[in-house]
Specification:
single chain; alpha+beta; 3 domains; three-stranded antiparallel β-sheet; 19% helix; extended; disordered N terminus
Length: 412
């Protein structure tokens, strides 16, 4: 299986020098004229292994690069037959023209395209977000409902979030989204017995009900003195409500901690001593997410302040291991509370398997064990059962390493 990666080029009407977005501190880069980009993509056509009728171009321009003659989006503002759905416009999607796109990239899968909007005097007046990505925030419940007949792939609040972010990078005037002060909510369903058992303190809890988990920080979200400090990481659960203006009135329970009287701690979202993470916090953390799969321009791991052209992260292969997905399940979907653990983090992770697989010790290692003697091995912490397994059967890799360490120490 081959994992797809994207090749991106910056085509402009004319070949000229440009720089990264304002205040990034990156060096000047050169763009390519559109005609040159077309020649580059044509060279790859001979490598196309697919049916030309099904895949005519191996490298092609996506629909985001085109708009109709009236500057309306081809996907979201036209029907399936190509007729424009904007009131007062009778243009056809087939009559399209190429437009100049720009982009802001924070990390892998965290980027957006945008179009600079200019007035009649050709002065910059604003931006238009095009095809924003919402990777890493899919577990959050939308803080704002989409308007009727919304046809775009990403929800409206994601467009507003990226509009706020891009304007900040450009240094232009921006307004904080109205929903930024709402608490971050993760909706989940009671779809397994484990989740139902976790929420047994709710009298009216039923299978397949929806609930909210409030996103909190153990150190920043709770005003508690030393005696009332939670013993475990708090997990505040509140009833589900699809009306965002009612979230501030919700009351919930910390299902991980009890007070001094043995009762579950109660929290109200309008309580001044309770400070859940807001969607505004999410935006600030989102733009500071470091790139985990590449190195910075100096060849070091990326940080939140990394800017410029990144380098490849070279990997030296060692012992072969099986690994899990690189991201938490809650990034894409969050309807099951069982994907949340006490040490779960919203970020890149690799779960490694195979440490408990059993191995057969080589004959030289068995010979060294016999030379040491059973008494010396046991004195160094190797159990009798482990010694027998190592000599006549298989042992876990951890036990294998422990035996090798004991052999090396005995030689000193």
């Amino acid at each position: 299986m081959v994992r797809r990666r994207t090749l991106a080029m910056v085509p402009t009407e004319e070949h000229r020098a440009t720089s990264d977005i304002k205040s990034t501190g990156a060096s000047m880069k050169r763009t390519a004229a559109r005609c040159r980009v077309d020649r580059i993509t044509a060279k790859f056509q001979s490598l196309n292994p697919y049916d030309p009728d099904a895949v005519p171009d191996l490298l092609n321009l996506t629909d985001d690069n085109y708009i109709c003659k009236c500057s309306h989006e081809l996907k979201s503002e036209h029907d399936e037959t190509g007729n424009c759905e904007v009131r007062g416009c009778d243009c056809k999607a087939k009559k399209k023209e190429r437009r100049q796109l720009w982009g802001v990239g924070i990390a892998a899968k965290r980027y957006t395209l945008f179009e600079k909007v200019c007035g009649q005097d050709k002065k910059f007046v604003g931006i238009k977000i095009v095809n924003p990505k919402a990777h890493g925030i899919g577990f959050l419940y939308p803080p704002k409902d989409n308007p009727k007949r919304w046809k775009k792939d990403a929800p409206e609040w994601v467009y507003e979030m990226w509009d706020y972010i891009v304007r900040g990078f450009l240094g232009s005037r921006r307004n904080r989204p109205a929903w930024a002060s709402l608490p971050q909510m993760m909706r989940f369903s009671i779809s397994t017995w484990n989740v139902l058992k976790m929420l047994g303190m709710w009298d009216d809890m039923r299978p397949l009900n929806f609930m909210f988990m409030v996103m909190t920080s153990p150190r920043l979200s709770f005003d508690v003195d030393f005696e009332n400090k939670p013993d475990s990481k708090p997990m505040v659960i509140v009833p589900f409500s699809s009306k965002q203006d009612e979230w501030s009135k919700l009351e919930g329970i910390d299902i991980h901690n009890r007070n001094r009287y043995g009762k579950y701690r109660l929290y109200s979202l309008n309580n001044r001593s309770f400070h859940p993470f807001t969607y505004g916090h999410m935006i600030e953390e989102y733009i500071r997410h470091p790139e985990a799969k590449s190195l910075d321009p100096d060849g070091k791991p990326c940080t939140a302040e990394t800017r410029g052209l990144l380098q490849r992260a070279h990997i030296t292969a060692g012992r072969i291991r099986y690994i899990d997905k690189e991201t938490s399940s809650m990034w894409a979907q969050s309807d099951d509370l069982s994907v949340i653990t006490d040490d779960d983090k919203i970020g890149f992770r690799v779960i490694e398997y195979g440490r408990r697989r059993k191995v057969v010790l080589p004959d030289p290692v068995k010979h060294a064990m016999r030379e040491m003697g059973l008494r010396e091995l046991r004195r160094r912490g190797i159990g009798q059962h482990t010694i027998e397994k190592a000599l006549f059967s298989t042992v876990r890799i951890q036990s294998h390493r422990k035996i090798l360490t004991a052999i090396e120490e005995s030689k000193k």
